[in-house]
């Protein structure tokens, strides 16, 4: 098979290849036309960087299977936001999603939104959904340097394409690499839309629809004989993602798991990865062959190009199948790395690095040292939460956080707006799963998982939390690497081994950011089934603090969709 560049016209002999505009809406990510990121080298003064995101439906075929996606500015994956530390980012989101119309909202994963707590993008908590036909501008500080992503936070919309990279350049590791290859999205994708994917989970008994293809930057040909969506599948019509290496140079790869249901193991044949940050937290560089990322997690790696001119090697991202309850048709994504002067039609012939699944966890907690040492203060609030699965009153299989299945009300006053008016208690709405943490300064949360699924727990409002421990059974109080535990914004926890053998994850954070913040699993089925809680941090300061009344939107169409 031959490959062609995204922007080149299709030669007649390659007519079976779909053009890049059809596969990925013209996104250059993962094509040889993608440009390395250079903003940080330009040393510009702090400024406001404006972006306009137009959200629409669009028919695409990233893996050769044609279906309707939800996209920003037509692109799949969505556009990359790039800024320097200290800049202001302003994004006007225009909701032109039609037939049917849907509300939306965009979350800026990992950014604490200090002083802009209304810009966190969580419908029912920090804003009303942005109604179809209207727009909303998010303005916030590029306040933490590193790699993250933006994604729709309105049910599981992001898995239909509403996601993209968010890169904030700082000085912290700019000197460690020569070339910034930008975001590398590792993501599962589905041949049906997110509503059709989620709703069968609530059948009695539940139906779990297979994950279809694992993609790198939205690319990766699907083998049409694998599933039942054959009629929309055009064999050998798309290309894998492609990247360029320069021999002897150090390349920064910003890995992001932007999927909805799977854990990724990333590697490059014949090359070693040097991990320099997990989520927003820089760590003492350590070497590994394989980087493991749970949903929402990022790992910045430096890859020294030790090959020679003309080489071609596979880049891989493999889904950890035992961590998925169900079928993944095509779990092994491949992309190609071409060295300078390589024949860019060449198919590599290199061998993969092996990895072993270990309870769906990241690298062991004691493998890395955060560069900025921070020991754990004594907590003044310790909360335990218990995650269980089971049937709710109507017999659907759902999750309970401390006995309560989370349900959002997209039509009611956002809870942050209510908190700014002094309302912090919801005795009539246990389904909001909202806790008032008062003026506690150091909050420790001990999470017990009693259900046989692993989870990726993500905390809003804080660029990092400490991970004190993760393991099986009751936590015995031991803190891993006590003088300087791992910190990040999304953490893995194991599946329970049985009713009496829960798994645990213990996190702690400094509660110095007044607002209403969520702690939830990032698996789309789990969030949608209720594995979600929120807490009010420093309610008195919310009342006193600056507050922008930006939440009112016109009516949200009533849709029968999971939330
Ligand atoms: C956003 O909506 C307002 C109010 O309807 C309108 O005046 C404005 O032109 C819209 N802006 C954009 C960029 O669509
Ligand atoms: C595609 O899938 C079919 C069915 O599993 C298999 O027989 C075939 O070898 C696969 N083709 C490729 C190129 O992997
Ligand atoms: C697609 O590619 C595979 C593997 O190269 C090949 O076996 C198959 O015949 C091709 N299918 C079509 C329809 O061209
Ligand atoms: C994915 O890769 C793993 C490791 O090489 C292999 O065991 C597995 O069979 C592959 N799965 C598929 C569906 O190709
Ligand atoms: C959740 O339930 C546990 C066990 O019943 C209880 O100790 C804990 O206080 C509850 N958590 C919260 C945040 O209320
Ligand atoms: C049970 O959960 C399902 C799925 O979220 C929901 O549609 C249904 O309304 C819930 N039933 C009750 C009684 O809350
Ligand atoms: C959601 O909030 C609206 C507005 O307050 C209210 O009319 C409606 O009954 C609420 N729905 C549920 C399920 O509580
Ligand atoms: C896995 O899926 C099966 C149905 O496919 C279901 O019965 C079972 O409860 C699921 N297990 C978990 C842990 O979700
Ligand atoms: Cu989960």
TrEMBL record:
CDD domains assigned to the protein according to its UniProt record, in alphabetical order: CuRO_1_MaLCC_like, CuRO_3_MaLCC_like
Keywords: Copper, Metal-binding, Oxidoreductase, Signal
Signal sequence residues: 1-15
InterPro entries associated with the record: Cu-oxidase-like_N (IPR011707), Cu-oxidase_2nd (IPR001117), Cu-oxidase_C (IPR011706), Cu-oxidase_fam (IPR045087), Cu_oxidase_CS (IPR033138), Cu_oxidase_Cu_BS (IPR002355), Cupredoxin (IPR008972)
Pfam hit, one: Cu-oxidase_2
Domain Plastocyanin-like: 56-171, 183-341, 421-540
GO molecular function, one term: oxidoreductase activity
PROSITE patterns in the record: MULTICOPPER_OXIDASE1, MULTICOPPER_OXIDASE2
Gene3D superfamilies: Cupredoxins - blue copper proteins (2.60.40.420)
Family: Belongs to the multicopper oxidase family.
Protein name, UniProt field: Laccase-like multicopper oxidase
Organism: Periconia macrospinosa
